[in-house]
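[audit] Reproducing an earlier prediction to check determinism. Same input, same settings, fresh worker. If the tokens differ from the archived copy the diff job will pick it up downstream; this log only records the rerun itself.
[audit] input (496 residues):
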Amino acid sequence: MKRFLILLAATLLTLSVNAQADKAKFYIEGQLATPSKAGEAWKLYNIHSKGITFSNTDTIYGHDTDKGVQLVFDHAASEHPQGFDCGLKFYRWQNNSGRWQVDSEVEDAQAAFSQQKVMSIMLVLDCSSSIGPADFVKLKNSAKQFIDVIVDKSSDGNVHIGIIGFNSMKNTTVYDMQPLTEESRKGMFQFIDGLELNNRTAFYYAINRGLDGIKQYVSKLKIGKDKKYDGSYIIAFTDGYDNDSFDPKIGKAAEGMEHKYFQHVNQRILKEKIGGAPIESYILAIRGNDVDRNNTDFERVISALSHNTSGDKYYSLMNFDKLQAAFEEIGTNLINKWQSIYCYIPRGYDGRVRWTIECGDVARKFFMGGNASIGGLSDYADKHGNPHGGIIVAAGLDMTFPVTDLISLGGYVELNISKSVGFAFAPEVMFSFPDNSALVLGLGYRGADRFTSNGFLMRAAYKLTSPWYVTASFSYGHGNTFMLGAGYTIFGRKLD
């Protein structure tokens, strides 16, 4: 009997694992060819994916490491809410059974900020007086948060950052580009903290000077033979039209797109390459006091300077409270662009392989939650004609078991007391959502006060994205009850 139970458990686990691979919403799959002779590389071909993107989609060549054959998927990004944080599990296809089989001895694939990539970033920050002191502090904090996001993933100096603070052309100040490290970050923060407000807005001049600064810096940058220069980035903020840029060869800036200074800067971003790589720009803008709220030309002109692989994403913000989140998003986008997925395969294997992201699948877990509620028991008469009613309190337990990715089935049991004890029960269905929240609905029976009050029970609960959930119930019959409560998730707190 014991052997049978062990075999049954193993079979159920295998079926569950196979089902997870087959139903995976985020995966990379390909055909692996082992080299037939010395000197040849392992090759992965017929590559396709779902919910994961990367640059090398044709053929990937692997090399031998102490962890197995390593394959690298470059410029990787995932649509999964948790990205690649929980790794990717490795499966191999079993022809004899026609199923995917997990290989637990192979290290889970991991994504990391590629240490072989080199990039340059120029932060261009408006310091015009129209911003105001309080909002200027928010701008400075947002810029510093952007640097923190980048340095958290790459602090070895492969990312190079410069900063320009501008108002008038005369008052434009520059922090020359240098490798971003934990130490150099301090100097960047000091420069940002030292920026001051003043009149005028030389936006085009500042961007143009930023492009010149990157170009001069990269021309002298020594990049190791195992590394590659992959991009130059302008990340610029302004709260108004350019009203100060001037160059004798270009002309004076003006509000429209037809003016030469705008066209000059725009064409540089679109057509110029630095270090053999194209330029990308992210523009963030808030309509300051000198811009009419209904002025569509401002949006049209400023947004036209935003050119990037995120779909020319331009950040039009209502106020400075939204600025930090926008800077963080841009920083995260850059990190995602430069991620590489490092996957491992056992030596000597030929055939179909798959890597899947499995964390975050909804309704994969047994759910149990304990709750307490309080409410009112309406006046009613027992069989002797004695009146009853008053406050009712209860403690209950919710339990559900997953049957699909979205739905779990289970039940609710309750012990309650008014003047004396009673109980309730209800079959339940739980609808799970990808953000880790859930809605629970149940229909059943509630008896209270030695069950002399009893009725048809309707119950609902909403599980928050945290372990807590809230409940509401109503029973209708011989003595009605209405109760509100709160619960805490005992099992199934996180998505797995």
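[audit] rerun output stored. Observation attached for the diff report: Residues 377 and 390 are 5 Å apart (CA to CA).
[audit] end
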